[in-house]
Amino acid sequence: MIAMETILLVEDDEMISEIYEKKLVQSGYSVELSMNGEDAVKKMQAKTYNLVLLDLVLPGLNGISVLQKLSHDGKNKLPSPTIVFSNLNDPDNQEAAFRYGASGFLPKSQFNPSELVQEVQRHIRESQEREKNDQKRSQDNHSHQSEMVDVIQQKHILFVEDEEVFVSLFVDRLKKEGYRVTVAQTGVEALDVLKKEGVDIVVTDVLLPTMRGDEFIMKIRHNEELKSLPILVISASATDEQVAMINAVGVQGFFLKTRITPSELAMNIKNIIG
Amino acid sequence: MFCQEIFDLYYFIFTDSISRLVYYSHIPAMAVALFAGFFVFLKTKNLAGKLLLAVMVSFSLWVSIDLILWTSSHSGIISFFWSLLGLVYAVMSLLFFYFGYVFSFEKDMPFSLKMVLLFLLLPLVLLLPSTFNIRGVDLFSCESEEGFLYTMYYYGIGFIAFFMTLFLLFTYKRRVAKENRKKVMYVLLGISFFLLTFFFFGVLSSYFYNLGFSSTFYFEQFGLFGMIFFIVLLAYLMVKHHIFQIKLLSAQVLIISLAFLIASQYFYIRTWQNYILTSITLILVIVGGVILVRVIKRDMERKNELQIMADKLAQANQRLKKLDQAKSEFISIASHQLRTPLTAIKGFISLILEGSYGNIDAPVRSALNKVYLSNERLIQLVEDLLSISRIESGRLEYKFRYWNIEEIVKDVVDMFRLRAREKGLDLELELPEHKLPEIYIDGEKIREVISNLIDNATKYTKRGYVRVRVEEKGENVQIIIQDSGIGIIAEDIPYLFEKFSRGKDTNRLHANGTGLGLYVGKQIVKAHKGGLYAFSEGEDKGSSFVIELLIKKEKEGEKEKGEKEEKEDDGEGLHEREE
C-alpha cells in the first residue's frame, strides 16, 4: 500500500471542516486543517499535499489572495494542486482562481459530501497524471532513449472492444503506460489471440458482435490453462442478469464505462499486474 | 247454420259462435303489429320507420277485414269488405318489400321501380267494384265467391313481393356494410317468411275452398303467424343488435298495457262514480307513465353517451399504454446508445485535464472542468432514465436483508450537514428513544430515497430548517422529512410522484433536479410495500415527506416474496393523504 494521500483543508468554519474531515478520513485520506489564509500559505510552502481544498471566504487573507501569493501572481505553479470549494461562484472569482493556478472550482451547494469525495479523488488522480505527463515531457526533451522500454519485460494486455472510439481512448492511454496492447474486436478473435500469445490481463466489453462478453469470459474460466487469467470488464450497459453471471464466474473488476476514466483503468490494471 | 242468422255480436266482432282460434290468430297479431309499427315509427321517424308503420297498418287493416268477414253474417257487409281484401293484401305485400329494400340499403327505392309496383296495383283498383273481383256471396256459408283471375292476380303480386325480397336476401351482401349484414339478413328473412306463409296459406285456403275440399277459409289464418314470427325477429334484433333501446321499450309496453288494463274497466263499469275514478286513474297513469318514460329515455341517452365516452377512453388508454411501453423501450435503447459518446467525452476530457495532450491554460482548464461536470450530470441523467425503465419493466433487483434504519438515516443526514450549514439551515435529526428493531429492506435503495428527499428539502428551502424524524408508528417505521421551504401548491401534490414532474414554479429556483427522484423513490418504497406521502399547507408554507416502512416480524422466505411482489407491481396508482 502506498503512503496515505494527504489533503489540506482550508476552512474557517469548525463545523464544516469537521464534516469534511470526517468524510475524507472515512474515504481513506489523511487530512490536515488550516483555519486562516496566513496559516494556509505557511503550510503549503512547508509541505506538498496531494490536494488542497480551499475556501474563499477566510479571516485575514482570503482564498484568492492565498492563491495569488503562492503562485506569485500566477507566474508560478502552485506548490500543491488546489481546488477552490466555495459558495462565491461568480465568474470573476472563478476566473481569478484559475488564473492563479487552481485546478478546480466546486460550488459548495451543488456538491454533497459523497460527490465531493468523488471530485477530490478525481482531482488527486488528475494532478498525479499531470505530474507524470510533465515529467515525461521533460524527460523526452532530455533524452529520446527512454522511449525504448525493455520490450521483453513489457506486460501484455488483451483489449476486447469493437467500438473504435473506445479503442483510441483506452488503448492509447494504456500504451502510454508502457503496456503492449492487442485489440480484438470479437470474442472469437480474442480467443484466437489467447491461444497464440501469452497475455497478462484481459480487458473486455460485454456487448460484442457475435460471441457476447459473458460467454467469452465463461470460455476463459473453463479453460484449464487460462483459468486464473485476470479479467477486467468494462461495459457501457450490461443487464442485471449479465452482471450477476459475470460476478458469479469471478472477474477482477467490473466497471461501467461512463464511470471510469482511461487513467483510472490504467491504475486498476497496474494494481493487478504491476 | 244460415248466413242470415244474426250472431249475437258485441263490439262488432265478438261472438261466441265461431272458432276461438280466429281470435287467437287475429287479435294478438294485429295488436302486436300495430304496436311494433307505431313504436318503430315514433322511434326512428325515417323512411324505413314510416314504411314499417304502413306495413303494419295495412296488415292490421287486412286482419280487421278478415275478422269482420269471419264474424259477420250480413251479405252486404261481407261483399263490401271482401272486395277490399285483395287490394289490401297486394298493397301490404308490396309495402313489405319496399320496407325491406329501404331497411337493407338505407336509401329510397328508385322512382322507376316504384312506378312498376304502382302499375302492378292498377288492375286491382280498377276492377275492384267489378264482378271480376267478387261474383257473389254464398248465403249458405257466408263466404264470397271470388273471381278466379282477380284472386290469382293479387296472390301473384304477393308472390312477386316474396320473390323480390328473396332476391334481396341473396344479393344484399354486395351492397351492405359488413357490420349491418346480420340484421339486414334477419329482417329480409322475416319478411320473406311472412310473405311466403301469407301467400301459401291464402292460396291454399282459396284453392281448397274453390275446389270444395273445405267449406271455410280456415287455413288462411295460419298465414297470420308469419307476422308473429316477423315481430319476434324484430324484437330479437332490438335486443341483440340494439336497433332500438330495449329498456325504453319495456317501460313503454308496461305503461301501455297498464293503461289498457285500466281502460278495460270501462267495459263493465256501470256507475258514474266509477267512471270518474277510473278516468282519473287512467289519466294519472298516462301522465305518470309519460314522465317515467321520458326520465328513462333521458337516462338512457346519458348512459349511451357515457358508454361511448368510456369506450373512447378505454381505447385511448390502450393506446397510451402501448405508447408508454414503446417509450420505455426507446429510453432503454437510447440510453445505451448515449453512454458511448458520454464515455468518450468523459475519457478524453480527463486525458486533456491530466495533460496527456500537453499543458493547458487556466481558462481552458476552467472551461473543460465545466464541460466535465456537465457531462457527469448527463451521465447521471442517463442512469436515472435507465433505472426508471428498469423499474417500469420490473427488472430492478432488490437485495433485501435486515438493516438498522436509524443508522441509515443518521448517515444520510450527516451527508447533508455541510450544505445545510452553508445555506444557513438548521438540519435537525430526531431519533426514537428506544432503539427500533432492524427492518427487512434493501438498505442501499432506501438510503437513496431518503437522501433524495433530504436533498430536495435542502434545495427548496432558502431559510429556516430541515427536520428529519424517525419514529415507530404501529406496525410501521416512519421517516419524516419536514422543511420550512417553498412548499407545494395543493394542486401539484398529486403530480409530485409522476415522472419528470416538478412543482410548477420550482423552475425559478436554482435546483439541478431531473424530476425523476420522487417517482423512483415512490416506486422503490412501493416495492417494499410501504408508502411515500407528501404534505404541504401551500406555497411558502414548507412541506413534509413521509416514508412509511413495515416492521416485519417474519424471517424466512421473505426475500423471494419481496422480489415476486415487486414484479407484480404495475407501478400505477398513488395514494395521497390530506393532512
Structure commentary:
The complex is a heterodimer of chains A (274) and B (579). Helices cover 45% and strands 17% of the residues of chain A. With 274 residues, chain A is α/β, with parallel strands linked by helices. In chain A, the strands form two sheets. Chain A has a five-stranded parallel beta sheet, with helices on both faces. In chain A, strand 9, helix 9 and strand 10 form a beta-alpha-beta unit. With 579 residues, chain B is of the alpha+beta class. Helix content of chain B is 62%, strand content 9%. Chain B is built from 14 helices and nine strands. Chain B has a five-stranded mixed beta sheet. In chain B, strands 1-2 form a two-stranded antiparallel ribbon. A two-stranded antiparallel sheet of chain B has the order 3-5. In chain B, helix 3 packs antiparallel against helix 4 (111-126). The radius of gyration of chain B is 43 Å and the shape is elongated. Classes of the chains: A alpha/beta (274), B alpha+beta (579). At the A-B interface, helix 1, helix 4, helix 5 and helix 6 of A face helix 9, helix 10 and helix 11 of B.
Question: Which structural traits does this protein have?
Answer:
heterodimer; A: 274 residues; alpha/beta; 5-stranded parallel beta sheet; 10 helices; 45% helix; B: 579 residues; alpha+beta; 5-stranded mixed beta sheet; two-stranded antiparallel sheet; 14 helices; elongated; disordered N terminus; disordered C terminus
In short:
The complex is a heterodimer of chains A (274) and B (579). With 274 residues, chain A is an alpha/beta fold.
* Straight-line N-to-C gap of chain B: 95 Å
- Category from helices, strands and their pairing of chain A: alpha/beta
DSSP, total strands of chain B = 9
CA-based gyration radius of chain A = 22 Å
Poorly predicted sequence stretches spanning 5 or more consecutive residues of chain A? none
Oligomer: heterodimer
Our estimate of the beta-strand percent of chain B is 5-15%
Uncertain runs of chain B are: 1-7, 503-514, 556-579
For the largest beta sheet of chain B, what order do the strands appear in spatially?
Answer: 4-6-7-9-8
Q: Largest interface, and how many residues on either side?
A: A-B, 48 and 43 residues
Percentage of residues in DSSP E strands of chain A: 15-25%
Indicate the overall shape of chain A. Answer: elongated
Total beta strand runs of chain A: 10
